[in-house]
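Hi everyone, sorry if this is the wrong subforum. Our group has a chain we'd like a structural model of before ordering constructs, and none of us has done structure prediction before. Sequence below.
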Amino acid sequence: HYYITNNFEDMIERCEGCGESATLQCPTCKKLGLPASHFCNQACFKTNWGNHKLKHKQKAVIESITNGSGTLYPGYSYTGPLRPYPRAPRRTDLPAHIGRPDYWEDGKPISEIESRGIGQIRVLNAEEIEGMRLAGRLGREVLDVAAGMVRPGVTCQEIDDAVFEACVERECYPSPLNYRGFPKSCCTSVNEVICHGIPDTRPLKDGDILNIDITVYKNGFHGDLNETFLVGNVDEAGRKLVEASYESLRRAIEQVKPGAKYRDIGGVIQKYINSCGFSVVRSYCGHGINQLFHTAPSVPHYAKNKAIGIMKPGHCFTIEPMINEGVWRDNLWPDDWTAVTSDGKRSSQFEHTLLVTETGVDVLTARQEMGGQPHFMDNL
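Answer:
Right subforum, don't worry. Here is the predicted structure as tokens:
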């Protein structure tokens, strides 16, 4: 495989290895129908062969999975029918002028780690509140861009690319990107995936439900939200699950006001969800958010929890109940991110970033059109 051919008919390209001008092209990429890969000379090609050949392997894996003959994690026992598809490399082409959180390079949220154990819920001042309002509004704009792409045949990788570009247009950093090593700009969770699904090259199918979780980082503040979408024609049971998960969030937000206890939110959610015949995930919870992506308070979504804290004006946090069609328990895929239902049944979620005010609550990530309703309701 250590050979390349001249490609003088094309314009001068940049070497994949060193960035210098290149006129040599990898013949295997050409044979496989992959985008052209250029190199400046034979030595540079050999030096970078270890990384470059992964493109060839990815093509083969995509074809084997598409044909139903392969899997990314041989031997792993999946709980449901969904399978992971190959992923494009992590984006590293963010313009230099866009502000970055402390973990952008090495994946370690040092400021967040250092704040753990303190447990104090910060009261934001007027300037910080304006920073959160801006981050929330921009996060909503980015989610609305992603919403416009949801349809059968589109891949979550394409949605992730659109999210990255929408963040760049707004001079935001996509907060999930390299957070604790997460490789993408948003989370896309399909069917039995509860949360933290990694965007890949699987095309969305008619009847899927899809959650898109967006967080943006702007001027030092994070804005976090998500919605679940109906892909094409979703069956009645799936629609009821999505409707119930949104209604549980709406009812929880009604409880937010000064003096309310964080631990009481879960009771409101679970009472309603149990009446619908569904279950509430316990492994993941809402969280404080400000200059830190995740901080105090913790906001469990189930009853009889031990969350600490009383709401005060200036508190900023998320509520994001994850609602399962079957049992509440979860499993983790070998990628160490993708949380799935332990029985393989579907899961749905909605999330908002909330600010406690003197009189109640402001939803910082509210949709500005259609009376604020989530996108799945537009065509019901």
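For your construct planning: The first strand starts at residue 5 and ends at 6. Residues 167 and 374 are 21 Å apart (CA to CA).
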